[in-house]
Write a structure and sequence with these properties.
This protein has about 120 residues and is mainly β. The protein is built from no helices and ten strands. The strands form two sheets. It has a six-stranded mixed sheet, with no helix packed on it. Strands 1-3-8-7 form a four-stranded antiparallel sheet, with no helix packed on it. It is globular, with a radius of gyration of 13 Å.
C-alpha cells in the first residue's frame, strides 16, 4: 500500500483551475509538515509548496500567487488549489512530507496527472 494517495488531476484549459487532494494511511498531517511536488517529463521533481503542522504555508516562486495549499486535519487531507494554470504546469503532482531536497524522500505515491491544453 502506498503511503500517499493523490487525486483531482485531469485536463484543464489555460487559465483554468483544479483542486488536488492528498491523503495518507501512514502519516498524520496534523503532526507533519506536508508538501506538494510536481514532475514534468524529463525534469526533476520540483517542490511547489508546504504547510506546517500548525498551518503555516510557504510557496515556490514558480507558483506563488496562483496555487494555495491547505489541509483538513479531521480528514487527514492536504489540498492544492491551482488557479490560472498555464502550459508549464503540465506535470504529475505528488504529495509527501516536506523536504527542500525532494530526492531525499521516499515512499512516493503514484501522483495525479494535470494536463493543461487548449
Amino acid at each position: 500500500q502506498a503511503w500517499f494517495e493523490e487525486s483531482g488531476g485531469g485536463l484543464v484549459q489555460p487559465g483554468g483551475s483544479r483542486r488536488l487532494s492528498c491523503t495518507s494511511s501512514r502519516v498524520t498531517f496534523s503532526r507533519t509538515t506536508m508538501a506538494w511536488y510536481r514532475q514534468a517529463p524529463g525534469n526533476e521533481r520540483e517542490l511547489l509548496a508546504h504547510i506546517t503542522d500548525d498551518d503555516l504555508p510557504r510557496y515556490a516562486d514558480s507558483i506563488k500567487g496562483r496555487f494555495t495549499i491547505s489541509k483538513d486535519n479531521a480528514k487527514n487531507t492536504v489540498y492544492l488549489q491551482m488557479d490560472n494554470l498555464n502550459y508549464e504546469d503540465t506535470a504529475a503532482y505528488y504529495c509527501n512530507s516536506y523536504s527542500d531536497i525532494p530526492g531525499y524522500l521516499s515512499n512516493w505515491g503514484q501522483g495525479t496527472l494535470v494536463t493543461v491544453s487548449s
